[in-house]
Amino acid sequence: MFDFHYFTPTKVIFGRNTEDQVADLIKEFGGTKILIHYGGGSVVRSGLLGRVTDTLDAAGISYVTLGGAVPNPHLSLVYEGIELCRKEKVDFLLAVGGGSAIDSAKAIGYGLANEGDVWDFYDYKRKAGGCMPLGVILTIAATGSEMSDSSVITKEEGLVKRGYSSDYGRPKFAILNPELTMTLPDYQTACGCTDIMMHTMERYFTNGGNMELTDALAEGLLRTVKKCAVILRDDPKNYDARAEVMWAGSLSHNGLTGCGNDGGDWMTHKLEHELGGLYDVAHGAGLAAIWGSWARYVYKNCLHRFKRFALNVMEVEDSGSDEEIALRGIEAMEDFYRSIHMPTNLCELGVTATDEDLALMAKKCAVGVGGEMGSAKVLNEEAMLAIYRASR
Ligand code: NZQ
Ligand code: ZN
C-alpha cells in the first residue's frame, strides 16, 4: 500500500430539483457576476438553462452566457470565454452540462487566474497557480469532471487533445440531479457508463501498491455501474439506476478508487484521447473500442489484477489457469460493451484508420506521455502502435 493524499473539496448537492439551490450556492462561494457556460444546446431545449437564469434573476445575481462547448471541447472557445469574462468582470463560472462544458469552463478559469497562454498548461509547459471558482450543474453522468482535478481540451490546430490536472480546477460545488440525465440519447448514457467504469479500471489495473478497501470500493462501483447500465438500456427513465450511475461517476474520478495504489495505468485514456482528437468520437465509445486490445496486450504483465477483475467484477467461472480466467474476464467485459451497444474495435466505432493515421496517433500519444507510460505494463510508441493495429 502506498501513501496518498485525498482532496475532494467539492460540495455535492444530490437529488431531485437540486438545481433550484444554485443561487444560494453561488452566493455561498462568493460569486457576484457569473459566466454560465454550456454545450451545444441540450440545456436550452430541456428548459434547464431557462430555469437557472430565472433562479439567478430572482436572486438578483447578474450573469452572461456562453454556449458552444462541443464534445472534445475546443481551445478557441476557451479563449473567447476568457475574453468575455475579462470584459464583463466575471468572478464565478457556472458550467451547465457535461464534461465538455465543465472542462471548457475549467480552462477558462485557468486562463483568467493566470498570465499568458492557457494552452501552456495543457502542453505541460508550466503549472497553473490558481483557477477562477467554478460550480457545476451536471446533465450527463460520465467524466466525473464535476469532482475531478482534470480538464481535457482540444487544440484545433494539429488536432491535439490534452488533459491538465490541478487541484485548483476542482469545482466548488456540484449539483447532481439524476432526473436531468433522462433526456440523454441512449448512446450517450452507455458512453457515460463506459467512461465511469474506465476511470476506476484505470486505477485498478496497476502493478504498484494495492489496498483491500480501495479494491472493495472499486469492485462494488464497477459491479453497480455494469448492472445499472443494462437497466438503463431497457428502462432509460429508471430514477434509481440513473442515481446510482451519477454518484458512481463522481466517485470514480474524484480519487477515491485510487487511494493506496500508484495512481493507475491510464493508457486506455491516453490512447483514446488521440482518437478523440483525430476523429472526434465520443470519449466513452472510444475507450470501449480500444480497451480489449489494450487488455490483451498487457494482461500477462498484470495477471493477478486481471484474474481478480474477472472473478470479482465480471463474475466468470473460477476454473482453469490464471491466464484462462483473465482472458475470460476480458471477453466478458467486451460482451458487456456489446450488450449496451458500445463498440469493441475501431471498425465498430465507425473509424477507418489508415496505417499512417495509426502511426501518427501512436507518435502523438508517445509525445503526449513523455515517451512511455503505464502501470499494468509500460508502453512505448511501438507498443501503442501495436495496440492501435490490434483494435482496427
Ligand atoms: O452539447 P450538448 O447540446 O449539451 O449535448 C451533449 C453532447 O452532445 C449531450 N448531452 C449532455 N447532457 C445531455 C445531453 N443531451 C441530452 N440531455 C442531456 N441531459 O451529450 C453529448 C456529450 O456531452 P459531453 O459533455 O461532451 O459528454 P461527456 O460528459 O462525456 O464529456 C466528454 C469530454 O470530457 C473529457 C472527454 O475527453 C471529452 O472531451 N473527459 C474529461 C475528464 C475530466 N475532466 O475529468 C475525464 C474523462 O476521462 C474525459 O477525458
Ligand atoms: Zn474518461
> For the residues shown, what is the average pLDDT?
97
Work out the helix count.
Answer: 16
Helix content: 40-55%
The domain count comes to 2
CATH evolutionary superfamily of the largest domain? Dehydroquinate synthase-like - alpha domain
Q: Could you give the count of β-strands? A: 8
User: So what's the overall shape?
Assistant: globular
Describe the structure.
It is a single chain. This protein has helices spanning 22-28, 42-45, 48-59, 75-88, 99-113, 119-122, 186-204, 212-234, 239-252, 267-279, 283-298, 303-312, 322-339, 346-349, 355-368, 381-390; strands at residues 11-14, 33-38, 62-66, 92-97, 134-138, 150-155, 160-165, 173-176. The chain is an alpha/beta fold. The chain folds into two domains: 11-180, Rossmann fold, CATH 3.40.50.1970; 184-390, Dehydroquinate synthase-like - alpha domain (Dehydroquinate synthase-like, alpha domain), CATH 1.20.1090.10. The strands form two sheets. Strands 1-8-5-4-2-3 form a six-stranded parallel sheet, sandwiched between helices. It has a two-stranded antiparallel ribbon with strand order 6-7. A hairpin with a 4-residue loop joins strand 6 (150-155) and strand 7 (160-165). Helix 4 (75-88) packs across helix 5 (99-113), helix 10 packs across helix 11 and helix 15 packs across helix 16. The two termini are 37 Å apart.
